[in-house]
Amino acid sequence: MEKDREKDRERDDEKEFDRWKKEFTQIPEIILREYWEAFKLFDKDGNYLIIKEELATVMRGLGQTPTEEEICIMMTEVDKDGSGYVDFEEFVGLMTRQPSPVDPEEDLRKAFRMFDRDGNGQINATELKHIMTNIGETLTEEQVDDMIQEADIDQDGMINYEEFIRVVATK
C-alpha cells in the first residue's frame, strides 16, 4: 500500500515536472531538474508549494548563503501573489535571477562541472551514474555505459565538454 502511494507520488512528480519542462524551455533540463529536486525536498506536504520560512533552508541547500534581510527581499520579489508560498515557477524565477544578462554558455559550463565531480574536464561512468541517481534516475551499469558510448565521439571512454554540449544541444 505504501509502495503504491510512493509510486503514485513519483508518477505525479514526473507529470508535474514534464509540465514545467514545457514552460521553461530556455533552461537546460539538467539544471531545471536540479531546481525541481531541490524544490521537492522542501515541499513537505507534496502540494508543490514551499512556505516562506523554508526559503532560507532551500537557498543554503543550493550552496547560497543569503542573510535574513536578503531572504525577506527575495520573498517579496518572488512571492508575486503575496500568498506566503513559493510555487515552482516563482522558485525558478528566484534561482535564475542574475545581476548580469543570462549566459547560456555559463549555465552549460555549470551543468558540466556538476557532472565532472573530480574537476578533470571529463565525465566518467561513475560520475555520470552518481549525478543521474541524484536526479532520480536509477541506471544499470550497462545503461550508463550506453550513455557514455552514445556521447563519446572520440571513443576514449569519457565525455569531454564538447561532447557534453553536443548531447545537451540535441535534447
Name some characteristics of this structure.
171 residues; mainly alpha; Recoverin, domain 1; two-stranded antiparallel sheet; two-stranded antiparallel ribbon; 9 helices; globular; calcium ion binding; EF_Hand_1_Ca_BS
Q: Show unreliable segments.
A: none
Strand content: 5-15%
Let me know the CATH homologous superfamily of the largest domain: EF-hand
Number of strands: 4
Strand order in the sheet with the most strands: 1-2
Query: What's the helix count?
Result: 9
CATH class of the largest domain: Mainly Alpha
Estimated radius of gyration: 18 Å
Largest sheet: 2 strands, antiparallel
Mean pLDDT, to the nearest integer, reads 80
Secondary-structure element order, N to C: HHEHHEHHEHHEH
Organism: Volvox reticuliferus
Domain EF-hand: 30-65, 66-101, 103-138, 139-171
Keywords: Calcium, Repeat
InterPro entries: CALM/Myosin/TropC-like (IPR050230), EF-hand-dom_pair (IPR011992), EF_Hand_1_Ca_BS (IPR018247), EF_hand_dom (IPR002048)
Task: Summarize, please.
This protein has 171 residues and is mainly α. The protein has 9 helices and 4 strands; from the N terminus they run H-H-E-H-H-E-H-H-E-H-H-E-H. A two-stranded antiparallel sheet has the order 1-2. Strands 3-4 form a two-stranded antiparallel ribbon.
If you had to describe this structure to a student in words, what would you say it looks like?
The protein has 171 residues and is mostly helical. It folds into 2 domains: 95 residues, EF-hand (Recoverin, domain 1, Orthogonal Bundle); 67 residues, Recoverin, domain 1. The chain contains 9 helices and 4 strands; from the N terminus they run ααβααβααβααβα. The strands form 2 sheets. It has a two-stranded antiparallel ribbon. It has a two-stranded antiparallel sheet with strand order 3-4. Helix 2 crosses helix 5. The longest helix has 22 residues.
